[in-house]
Amino acid sequence: MAARNSEDAVVITGLTVLSGSTPLLDRCDFRIRKGEIHAVIGESGSGKTTLANFLLGLLDRNLESRWEDFFLFGEKMQGSGWSEKWKEWRGKRISLIPQSPALGFHPYRKISSQVLEYFSVLQPELSDRQICLELFEKIGLSDPKSAWDAHPHSLSGGERQRILVLLSLYSNAELILADEPTSALDPITSREILDLLSGLVRQKERSLVFISHDLGSVSNFADTISVLKRGRLVETLSHSFSTWAPKTDYARKLFEIDSFPPYFA
Ligand SMILES: Nc1ncnc2c1ncn2[C@@H]1O[C@H](COP(=O)(O)OP(=O)(O)OP(=O)(O)O)[C@@H](O)[C@H]1O
C-alpha cells in the first residue's frame, strides 16, 4: 500500500505518534485519495485530532512521530528537505477548517479585510470585493453585503463557518482537514454546511479528511471511513452499493449506537 500513486493525496504506513512511551497512534496505515471524502471516526481519545495535527505538520512538541513510508502529494517524506516542504504546504496545499467557527477569524477585524488579505496571499485573483460578494452569495449567505462589512461576532456561527468553508475550498488547498466542523452548530445549519462542504469538495476535486462523531453525516458524505480505537486503526470501510458493512465488532457497535441507514450488518 505504500507505493507512490498520483491518485493519492496521502499514503502512510506504520504511522506511530508517541507521548513518551505511550502511543497516541499505533502503527496506522492511511490512504487518502485525491477527490475523496475520508472520514475518521472513533470514540473520544482514539487519536482523530492527533491524526489531523500530524497531517498539518503541527503535532505538539512533546509528541514524537515515526512511520515506515509516507507520501504526501506524491512526494516521499524522508531524506532531506521534507519537513521544510511540509511547512511550506501548510496553509497552502493543506488547510484546516476548525471545530469552532470563532477560531477561524481575528475578532477585531472586519470580515472584508480578513477575506481580502487571505485571498491576496493564496489566490490573488479572488482578492476583489465584487468577486468575494458573488462567492458569498454562492455559499448561501442571505445578505452578502452585510456579512462583508461585519465583524466576526455579529455573524452567526453558521455564517462564519460558511465563510471558512469558502476560504478553504477556494484557496486551492488540495488536502482539507475538517475536525468536527459542525459540532458547534444546530442540526439544520450543520446539515447545510456539510452539504456545502461536500458539494464544493466534489466540484473542486479536493481531498477532505472529515473527523466527526456524527455517523449519520459520515455515512451520507464519506467515500471511505477509517475507524480508530485507542490509537489503533481497527478497520477501513469503503462505500459499496450505497451501504456500509463494518466487519469488526467495534465498528459495528459505533454504527449501531447511531443506527443510521443505510447500514447492512
Ligand atoms: N500533546 C499531548 N500530549 C500527551 N497526550 C496527548 C497530547 N495530545 C493528545 N493527547 C492524548 O492523546 C489521546 C488522543 O487524543 P485526540 O485528541 O487525538 O483524540 P480524539 O479522538 O480526537 O478525541 P475527541 O473525539 O474527544 O476529540 C488522548 O488520550 C489525549 O489525551
From TrEMBL:
<dbReference type="InterPro" id="IPR003593">
    <property type="entry name" value="AAA+_ATPase"/>
</dbReference>
<keyword id="KW-0547">Nucleotide-binding</keyword>
<feature type="domain" description="ABC transporter">
    <location>
        <begin position="10"/>
        <end position="255"/>
    </location>
</feature>
<dbReference type="Pfam" id="PF00005">
    <property type="entry name" value="ABC_tran"/>
</dbReference>
<keyword id="KW-0472">Membrane</keyword>
<keyword id="KW-0067">ATP-binding</keyword>
<keyword id="KW-0813">Transport</keyword>
<protein>
    <submittedName>
        <fullName>ABC transporter ATP-binding protein</fullName>
    </submittedName>
</protein>
<dbReference type="GO" id="GO:0005524">
    <property type="term" value="F:ATP binding"/>
</dbReference>
<dbReference type="GO" id="GO:0005886">
    <property type="term" value="C:plasma membrane"/>
</dbReference>
<comment type="similarity">
    <text>Belongs to the ABC transporter superfamily.</text>
</comment>
<dbReference type="InterPro" id="IPR003439">
    <property type="entry name" value="ABC_transporter-like_ATP-bd"/>
</dbReference>
<keyword id="KW-1003">Cell membrane</keyword>
<dbReference type="InterPro" id="IPR017871">
    <property type="entry name" value="ABC_transporter-like_CS"/>
</dbReference>
<dbReference type="InterPro" id="IPR050388">
    <property type="entry name" value="ABC_Ni/Peptide_Import"/>
</dbReference>
<dbReference type="GO" id="GO:0016887">
    <property type="term" value="F:ATP hydrolysis activity"/>
</dbReference>
<dbReference type="InterPro" id="IPR027417">
    <property type="entry name" value="P-loop_NTPase"/>
</dbReference>
